[in-house]
Design brief:
The chain contains three helices and two strands, in the order αααββ. By secondary structure, it is mainly alpha-helical. It has a domain of 38 residues. It has a two-stranded antiparallel sheet with strand order 1-2. Strand 1 and strand 2 form a beta hairpin. Helix 1 packs across helix 2. The radius of gyration is 28 Å and the shape is flat. The protein starts with a helix and ends in a 7-residue tail after the last strand. The relative contact order is 0.08.
Amino acid sequence: MSIDQSTAAKVAKLARIKVEDDALPALASEFNTILGFIEQLNEVDVEGVEPMTSVTPQRLKRRVDVVNDGNQQEKVLKNAPDAREGFFAVPKVVE
């Protein structure tokens, strides 16, 4: 697959990137280089290779999912312009 200048201009427009007409040949060339790298990756035999999330096998640390208030109510409300009874106070907007 090859990218020409009109396709490069269309991609730039879709990405909302302003590209001058004199820069389109270089952009098309860069796209073609990227597509060449992708074609090289498609040639790699990955049959039987399991996907992995890290180069070293590890299990993520897990914690108990418990709902709590964080014990920081006073710190949070300290920056509020108006707080009453442990909550943020806001002006009434619904009549």
